[in-house]
Design goal:
Blueprint (H helix, E strand, L loop, with lengths): L26 H10 L9 H12 L1 H44 L4 H8 L3 H14 L1
Length: 132
């Protein structure tokens, strides 16, 4: 639910969305200030404020944050590598199918031999017809 408007958001979660830019003096507004303002700490939220201080202003916290950022970066690299591998496999499939079509093989024969979906082969065949 969006607190300021009362609008219910059906996204499978039970959450309350707030506009962090609005300061109506409520506890929620004060907490949002701690989250969004670099220099803001608040004794009403000692655990949050202490952790914010720890991660932002101590060597230990900065080391932890660096480890987290490095882990996220490595996960992104691995995801990128996997996407690249998949793109390479797809390009190789297209090349194989194109060569077989150019050598007179029928889409059904290619599908049977390579165990590729017939629709994939037909789509490639159609794209070849368009570009010729």
């Amino acid at each position: 639910m969006i607190r300021e408007t009362g609008r219910v958001v059906h996204n499978g979660f039970e959450e309350i969305y707030v506009n962090a830019a609005i300061n109506d003096g409520s506890d929620v507004a004060e907490l949002m200030d701690v989250f969004t303002n670099d220099k803001s700490y608040n004794n009403k939220f000692p655990y949050t404020s202490a952790n914010k201080h720890r991660f932002k202003e101590t060597e230990e916290g900065q080391d932890i944050m660096c480890e987290i950022v490095e882990k996220i970066r490595e996960e992104g690299r691995e995801e990128g590598r996997e996407e690249g591998r998949e793109e390479g496999r797809n390009e190789e499939r297209i090349i194989k199918i194109t060569e077989m079509l150019n050598n007179g093989k029928t889409p059904q024969a290619i599908a049977d031999f390579c165990n590729y979906p017939i629709k994939l082969i037909q789509d490639i065949q159609n794209s070849l017809l368009i570009t010729q």
